[in-house]
Amino acid sequence: MALIFDMDGTMVDNMMTHHRGWQKTLAVYGLELTLEEVIATCHGKNVEIIERLFPGKYSIEERERISFEKERWYRSIFLPDLKLIAGLAELLETAQKNGIPMGIGTAAPKANVDFALDNLGIRHYFQAVIHADDVEKGKPEPEVFFKVADKLGVPYANCLVFEDSPTGAKTALNAGMKAIILTTTHRAEEFAEIPSVLRCVSDFTGIDILNELENLATN
Length: 219
Description:
globular; 6-stranded parallel beta sheet; alpha/beta; 6 strands; DNA polymerase, domain 1; Rossmann fold
């Protein structure tokens, strides 16, 4: 059995900063979106988001530059507020002490992953870290979770995913994995029709991870 974590909105409550970063960056390039529109459309790999919003307009080099601008703004703004979501530190420690393999599968670019893991001092908990630069296709394609599980050496069905978005929950479904959802970004009712979702929680404080994995193994 293994644990796979999404990062943004799941390990750290940073999605509103990301949304405002997208809103600010897209406005510079002539696309004015409300925060609600940003939340609905800006998910997945950055270069895929930009191509989706500006189809055929920018080369891959230009999309990477726009992505870099947005993420640099995010890191500079969010650093003072960077912290793990409540209960996660204790869950990571319990899992490590019990020999449970753990990995991260995120649509974030490498620079943002390094920013979070190194500033929080938690890199040592994870035996696999797969980010946007490691995959050809972003979520909801299951490639990112497959690569984490393969690196951990655990069958896909034996992985429990933690996510915060409907796209992430559908990625778990497409990977044949079950998921627990953090409601930091989306409402619980948005996940009602996604069969991969075991339940939704506001944070990690009420999760008995050993019991969760035992239930997953026997069901």
